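Structure in, sequence out. Go:
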């Protein structure tokens, strides 16, 4: 096997056309990000994983129901616009928020080599998800932030080959992660802007 980032679909490989962001490949990449929390190795992050998985399922269910009208994220949201419950639209909105939180946390970690993950994740939470959470949920996330592993342990897991082969170099892992996160950041910004311009986030 290969280091983790080589075993999952990269956000850099998600097709983006004039019609929007490819739904199927985006969801595969999002599932890869969910798996990243396993490397963090803390049960405290199960609430984050569960939330991401639930929202991925909502978007996928809509795609399965109306594949030709949902082949891009933008088309999926537009197609659901006239319906009462817009489950996939809400699910995608929360999925984007969760992805943005994780993206910012890891970008913080890359930008500040001396900063522990607990600090990087706390800063990301305060600038992304915190504004949308009630007191109880904020408490849950506060516990999760404090349960982050040491930075060195996490990056060693990112470099490791689960099959026991030689680990990837620091340079390769950092380059792959930076590319992965830049592409994710671009997709999140693009689709969140689409939501805002179209008023698709109203009511959520």
């Amino acid at each position: 096997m290969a280091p983790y980032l080589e075993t999952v679909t990269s956000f850099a490989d998600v097709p983006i056309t004039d019609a929007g962001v490819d739904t199927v490949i985006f969801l595969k990449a999002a599932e890869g990000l969910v798996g990243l929390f396993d490397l963090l190795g803390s049960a405290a992050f199960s609430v984050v994983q569960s939330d991401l998985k639930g929202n991925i399922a909502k978007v996928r269910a809509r795609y399965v129901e109306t594949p030709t009208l949902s082949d891009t994220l933008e088309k999926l949201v537009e197609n659901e616009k006239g319906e009462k419950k817009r489950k996939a639209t809400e699910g995608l909105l929360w999925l984007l928020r969760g992805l943005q939180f994780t993206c910012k946390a890891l970008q913080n970690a890359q930008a500040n080599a001396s900063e522990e993950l607990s600090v990087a994740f706390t800063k990301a939470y305060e600038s992304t998800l915190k504004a949308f959470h009630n007191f109880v949920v904020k408490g849950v996330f506060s516990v999760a932030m404090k349960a982050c592993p040491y930075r060195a342990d996490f990056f060693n897991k990112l470099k490791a080959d689960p099959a026991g082969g030689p680990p990837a170099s620091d340079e390769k892992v950092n380059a792959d992660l930076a590319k992965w996160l830049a592409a994710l950041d671009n997709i999140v910004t693009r689709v969140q802007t689409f939501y805002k311009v179209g008023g698709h986030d109203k009511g959520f």
